[in-house]
């Protein structure tokens, strides 16, 4: 299984923009929390927040002042944030490249956790051979394959029940410089004890365990959210944490066909709990973020607005505004982009 804390795998750079999204760490990453906060409340309008307000909001999530300021500085160097100054006061907002990247990623999170598409019973096999001295290239290829939903059946042999799209093919050629071969076909049945089951390439028990942990953590909060008991800083923290957790699932769960999964698969219950918490806390969290920002500025930008799951599905932010889904190429192994 790939690390669930690598934000670059969840929001991969499309190669058209010069930015490097922060790598997640085991535990709370100040940069990751900052990106989530800014995306959750400023993405649509790319509203700028006073740096002092960002520091204050991060403090409510347990990030020290020094850690918050370092995170802002590093995100600016990465091309994720861009700053401006008025006198002694500085503000930051998401760069255009980061806004597009995060918006596509947000859309992918939701579309990738819907019901899997029908399966024709065929498998795509990617075989590659790279010399030992090309370790960086090998790691990049494996990361790309896993992001596309593939898993290693054997070393150098990766499989997926879905077709490899033309753009994905072109990307793999770039990564391997011809040292890759792709096949698609049906598995030939042998004696049950003489072949490895293809589904064993994925750790189904581990994926199921992640869903179970998610539901155990968040399902009890749903009644409190619906009754209005969660407010203020607690609402912001809950939305940030549940997004940070739920956005792992497009990588952890490769959307295998239902025919291959055990009964009672928890993908849909997890999605429902995520929407109940994330959407249910949008209004109180938005009020709190605006209140915190209001402590550091005379005028709160109206673009500070909590988006919901419906907003994430509606379109992505681009130079011309919201791009409708028909014009988008979501980064999914079941669609067209790499």
From TrEMBL:
Residues 117-194 form the Transcriptional repressor PaaX-like central Cas2-like domain. It comes from the Bacteria. Transmembrane segments: none annotated. Residues 202-290 form the Transcriptional repressor PaaX-like C-terminal domain. Pfam families: PaaX, PaaX_C, PaaX_M. InterPro entries: PaaX-like_central, PaaX-like_N, PaaX_C, WH-like_DNA-bd_sf. Residues 31-97 form the Transcriptional repressor PaaX-like N-terminal domain. One of its GO terms (biological process) is DNA-templated transcription. This is PaaX family transcriptional regulator C-terminal domain-containing protein. It comes from Micromonospora profundi.
């Amino acid at each position: 299984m790939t690390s669930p804390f690598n934000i670059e795998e969840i929001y991969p750079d499309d190669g058209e923009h010069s930015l490097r999204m922060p790598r997640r760490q085991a535990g709370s990453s100040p940069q990751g929390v900052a990106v989530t906060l800014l995306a959750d409340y400023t993405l649509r309008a790319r509203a700028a927040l006073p740096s002092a307000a960002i520091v204050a909001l991060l403090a409510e999530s347990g990030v020290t002042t020094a850690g918050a300021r370092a995170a802002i500085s590093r995100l600016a160097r990465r091309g994720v944030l861009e700053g401006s100054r008025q006198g002694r006061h500085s503000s930051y907002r998401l760069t255009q490249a980061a806004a597009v990247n995060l918006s596509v990623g947000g859309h992918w999170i939701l579309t990738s956790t819907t019901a899997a598409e029908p399966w024709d019973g065929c498998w795509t096999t990617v075989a590659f051979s790279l010399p030992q001295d090309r370790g960086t290239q090998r790691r990049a290829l494996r990361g790309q394959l896993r992001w596309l939903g593939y898993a290693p059946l054997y070393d150098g042999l990766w499989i997926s029940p879905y077709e490899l799209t033309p753009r994905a093919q072109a990307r793999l050629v770039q990564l391997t410089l011809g040292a890759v071969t792709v096949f698609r076909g049906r598995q030939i049945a042998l004696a049950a004890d003489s072949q490895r089951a293809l589904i064993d390439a994925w750790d189904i028990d581990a994926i199921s365990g992640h869903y179970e942990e998610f539901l155990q953590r968040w399902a009890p909060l749903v009644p409190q959210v619906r009754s209005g008991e969660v407010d203020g800083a607690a609402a912001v923290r809950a939305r940030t944490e549940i997004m940070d957790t739920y956005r792992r699932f497009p990588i952890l769960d490769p959307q295998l066909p239902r025919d291959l999964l055990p009964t009672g698969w928890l993908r849909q219950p997890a999605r429902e709990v995520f929407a109940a918490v994330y959407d249910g806390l949008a209004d109180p969290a938005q009020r709190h973020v605006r209140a915190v920002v209001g402590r550091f500025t005379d005028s709160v930008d109206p673009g500070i607005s909590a988006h919901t799951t419906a907003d994430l599905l509606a379109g992505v932010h681009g130079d011309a505004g919201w791009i409708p889904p028909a014009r988008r190429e979501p980064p999914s192994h079941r669609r067209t982009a790499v």
